[in-house]
């Protein structure tokens, strides 16, 4: 067995440098580790210990971006070791571009991250850093390049704000509601958390302003599909669609990928005060394609073209000389307008109001009054109907719908009213005609058909002071 060397013997071997006695070493005071005196003396090369320690600390200025390791995560701040004499502090407000976040959701212990130096030493002697501003600076450089190349950015929706969405694209990018989809979206909340792609349409670093458009990206990616859709869409076609938006000048209808406009003048054959009185968002309707503009990618549609023209319907069911029942809607100096059908108005000229001279229409009728009138002219092309009150008093053929209302027993085979025994009117229309019939029955003269009235000579009816032989 060999003898052990006496450690205190002059011939004893020198202890290896990695087994250091604290008494024979220098404490750096930064990380608690001891450095052998021999090593220190070898490294100093004439420098003082303080200079040697200072040489190990990173150098930086305010505004620099530094790297470090997360050493502590607290509820209101994160500590980052960047190799400085003390850890840097990242306040929670400087941790993320998102509001009200949990620091543990943003960083984790041991993670290496970048931060921007806000202040090397605040009032409390702390090094203040910002992760979000470092991210912001890096992002601006990337985003400027993307915009120059016409590229696309991508990021999750982190917030709904007034007028649109906020996307996390390394900084806060604003996506207006009108540019989220090809058509305006009313409820933006379902987009929160979703990752969206968008084009950059406005960039201003001085104002920290980034405006995005997802619609521009969708239009670009769907351009080929739109071209095919428009090419296959022909004027005159009837298409089924869904009302996607109602505006003052009409309604937009989604035809299955593209919207077309139904102008307010094409919503109905009747006068429309506002499109919302005809259609609502979500309504499924049939529309006719009026025009397809390939260059501007615009589609003009018509709702009324899919419906029967009430004037055409009226003209098909009535003819000049018939008696119809109507309601006075408006008085004008030259006569009165009378509604004789749904959306159909005719004019009773002042000269056709009575057999005697009439100075003002209100001398004969009042607005809202219901009465019998005779159709004396029907111009479908110009959509004009001329009516007569005084000729209605002379009798004539009653329009079919009124014959049905009174019952077939009240008319002869020519459609002339002959009355019925013990007839009790059930409606105002029946009563009005019954009064007219009663007037003729008392004068022993039945109503005559329109064509007979035109042909009958005036001398057939004697004047009151004449004697018939």
Describe the structure.
- There is one protein chain.
- The model is unreliable at 1-44 and 442-469 (pLDDT under 50).
- With 469 residues, the chain is of the alpha+beta class.
- Helices cover 20% and strands 31% of the residues.
- The strands form 5 sheets. A 5-stranded mixed barrel has the order 3-4-5-7-6. A 5-stranded antiparallel sheet has the order 10-9-8-11-12. It has a 5-stranded mixed β-barrel with strand order 13-14-15-17-16.
- It has helices spanning 37-44, 49-55, 103-106, 131-149, 214-221, 223-232, 310-317, 400-406, 428-442, 450-455, and strands spanning 25-27, 34-36, 65-73, 77-81, 88-91, 112-119, 127-130, 152-161, 164-168, 172-176, 195-204, 209-213, 238-247, 250-254, 259-263, 284-293, 298-302, 322-332, 335-341, 344-349, 370-379, 384-388, 397-398.
- It is elongated, with a radius of gyration of 47 Å.
- It has 10 helices and 23 strands.
- The relative contact order is 0.05.
- It folds into 5 domains: 25-55, no CATH class; 65-134, Nucleic acid-binding proteins (OB fold (Dihydrolipoamide Acetyltransferase, E2P)); 150-221, OB fold (Dihydrolipoamide Acetyltransferase, E2P) (Beta Barrel); 234-306, Beta Barrel (OB fold (Dihydrolipoamide Acetyltransferase, E2P)); 308-463, OB fold (Dihydrolipoamide Acetyltransferase, E2P).
């Amino acid at each position: 067995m060999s003898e052990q060397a006496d450690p205190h013997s002059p011939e004893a071997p020198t202890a290896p440098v990695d087994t250091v006695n604290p008494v024979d070493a220098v404490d750096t005071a930064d990380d608690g580790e001891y450095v052998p005196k021999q090593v220190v003396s070898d490294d100093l090369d004439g420098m003082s210990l303080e200079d040697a320690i200072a040489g190990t600390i990173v150098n930086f200025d305010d505004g620099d971006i530094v790297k470090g390791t997360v050493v502590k995560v607290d509820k209101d701040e994160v500590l980052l070791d960047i190799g400085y004499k003390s850890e840097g502090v990242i306040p929670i407000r400087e941790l993320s571009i998102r509001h009200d976040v949990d620091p543990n959701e943003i960083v984790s212990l041991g993670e290496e991250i970048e931060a921007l130096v806000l202040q090397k030493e605040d009032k409390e002697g702390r090094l203040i850093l910002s992760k979000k501003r470092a991210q912001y600076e890096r992002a601006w450089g990337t985003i400027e390049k993307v915009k120059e190349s016409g590229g696309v950015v991508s990021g999750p929706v982190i917030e709904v704000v007034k007028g649109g969405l906020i996307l996390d694209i390394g900084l806060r990018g604003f996506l207006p509601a009108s540019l989220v989809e090809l058509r305006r979206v009313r409820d933006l909340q379902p987009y929160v958390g979703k990752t969206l792609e968008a084009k950059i349409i406005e960039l201003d670093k001085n104002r920290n302003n980034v405006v995005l458009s997802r619609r521009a990206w969708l239009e670009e990616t769907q351009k080929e599909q739109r071209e095919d859709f428009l090419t296959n869409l022909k004027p005159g076609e009837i298409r089924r669609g869904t009302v996607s938006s109602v505006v003052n000048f009409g309604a937009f209808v989604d035809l299955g990928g593209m919207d077309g406009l139904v102008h307010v003048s094409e919503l109905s054959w009747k006068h429309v005060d506002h499109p919302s009185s005809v259609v609502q968002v979500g309504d499924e309707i049939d529309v006719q394609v009026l025009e397809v503009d390939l260059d501007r990618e615009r589609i003009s549609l018509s709702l009324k073209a899919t419906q029967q023209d009430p004037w055409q319907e009226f003209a098909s069911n009535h003819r000049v000389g018939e008696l119809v029942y109507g309601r006075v809607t408006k008085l004008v100096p030259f006569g009165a307008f009378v509604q004789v059908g749904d959306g159909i108005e005719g004019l009773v000229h002042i000269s056709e109001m009575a057999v005697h001279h009439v100075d003002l229409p209100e001398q004969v009728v009042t607005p809202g009054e219901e009465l019998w009138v005779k159709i004396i002219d029907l111009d479908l092309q110009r959509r004009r109907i001329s009516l007569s009150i005084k000729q209605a008093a002379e009798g004539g053929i009653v329009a079919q719908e009124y014959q049905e209302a009174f019952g077939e027993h009240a008319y002869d085979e020519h459609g002339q009213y002959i009355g019925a025994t013990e007839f009790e009117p059930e409606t105002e229309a029946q009563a009005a005609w019954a009064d007219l019939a009663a007037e003729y029955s008392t004068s022993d003269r039945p109503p005559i058909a329109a064509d007979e009235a035109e042909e009958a000579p005036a001398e057939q009816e004697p004047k009151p002071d004449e004697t018939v032989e």
